[in-house]
Amino acid sequence: PFLRSVETLVTNNGADLGLCFDGDGDRLGVIDDQGKLVFADRVGIVVAKFLEETVGATGPFVVDVKSTSLYESELTSDIVWAKTGHSYVKAKVKESGAVAGFERSGHFFFSEPIGRGYDDGCVAALALLWTLCSAKAAGGNW
Predict the structure, then answer these.
(1) pLDDT digits (tens, 9 = 90+) for 86-132
(2) Is pTM beyond 0.85 here?
(3) Cα 29 to chain center, whole Å?
């Protein structure tokens, strides 16, 4: 129900996007400017590509096994696959020294200097906003 209300708010107000968080704030959901939920894998890929192309991050990136293979086809960095579950992804991010980890359920993990290695919806939202603002300044979109 909450996502639907954000979808309506975005479309009724002409917003560029809507950001949604779960009850404990460790997951991020994104609604695009058309009022549609953006698949968490797409959010992860967009941010990871930005980190590769703009920030110069060379990976690896950790992705849970239920995620799409688009991570492999769209990124140049190594992909480390982890068992599904935020504790497994978090551990694999730390173990592999990954730049970030992405779980299909909306858990996003960013290592320093962006985050501290744990799932935080606000940090994920800031990383996405940084990405989208940079893309918009360059004349692109997501």
Answers:
(1) 999 999 999 999 999 999 999 999 999 899 989 999 999 999 999 99
(2) yes
(3) 9
CB atoms within 10 A of CB 1: 4
Q: Give tens-digit pLDDT for 12-38.
A: 999 999 999 999 999 999 999 999 999
Total Cβ atoms within 10 A of residue 38: 18
DSSP lists the bridge partners of residue 64 as 82
For 86-132, the DSSP string reads HHHHHHHHHHHT-SEEE-TTSBEEE-TTT--SSB-HHHHHHHHHHHH
Select from 2.40.30.10, 3.60.15.10, 3.40.120.10, 3.30.930.10 the CATH code of 39-137: 3.40.120.10
**Rounded (10°) CA dihedral 129, 134, 137, 141:** -70
